[in-house]
Every structure is written in structure tokens, then in C-alpha cells.
Design goal:
By secondary structure, the chain is mainly alpha-helical. It has two helices and two strands. It has a two-stranded antiparallel sheet. A hairpin with a 6-residue loop joins strand 1 and strand 2. The longest helix has 24 residues.
């Protein structure tokens, strides 16, 4: 992709250069405007398309599906011993409302 962009940059620069030369030369022979103007327009269009930023959309989907059956039990903060709020489905971390620390929820297999 970079080689094509580099080649098109040289083509656009050449078209702009020769378009300007032909427009300057049209002072002597006015029919050179018919060559110079399209070269300038074409070079400008190519340069604009090369320099125009393209939006990039990056979509990341994160999901957590527990493999086992979930039992409801009271969660306690390992740092201060306070009761933690019930986690929402798919929530991996819980913040303790008392000490402010973050606790990671770990699914343990039931064998």
C-alpha cells in the first residue's frame, strides 16, 4: 500500500508541475491551457485523495460466559471484610464501597 501511495504522490507532483508549466506557457500559445488545466485539476484531485484522512473503526467485543452454574453467595472484601454489592452479569471487577479497592471476581470450576 505504501508503494502505491508513494507512486501516486510522484504522479500528483508531476501533474501539478507540468500543469503549472503548461499554464505559464499558455501565455505564448493559448491552446496549452487545454493541457495545463486538466493536469492541474488531476494532480490536485490525486493529492487531495492521498492526503485526506480516512476514519478507522476498531470494534472490540469482550464477553464473559461462565461455564458452570452460578450460586448466589455473599461476597466479602478481602481487604476490609465489608459486604460487596451484587455483580452485574458479565462484570469481572467489583469496587468496594468502603475501602475503595477493586476486587476481581474469579470463576472457580465445580469438580
Amino acid at each position: 500500500m505504501d508503494a502505491v501511495k508513494l507512486l501516486l504522490s510522484f504522479v500528483a507532483a508531476g501533474m501539478l508541475f507540468f500543469g503549472a508549466i503548461f499554464l505559464i506557457a499558455s501565455v505564448v500559445n493559448p491552446y496549452r491551457i487545454l493541457v495545463g488545466f486538466p493536469l492541474l485539476v488531476g494532480g490536485t484531485v490525486i493529492a487531495y485523495r492521498l492526503l485526506k484522512p480516512r476514519p478507522r473503526v476498531v470494534e472490540v467485543k469482550v464477553s464473559w460466559d461462565p461455564s458452570g452454574r452460578l450460586d448466589v453467595e455473599e461476597l466479602k472484601c478481602p481487604y476490609c471484610g465489608a459486604s460487596l454489592p451484587e455483580p452485574k452479569p458479565g462484570q469481572e471487577f467489583i469496587k468496594c464501597p468502603y475501602c475503595g479497592r477493586t476486587v476481581k471476581l474469579v470463576e472457580e470450576p465445580k469438580w
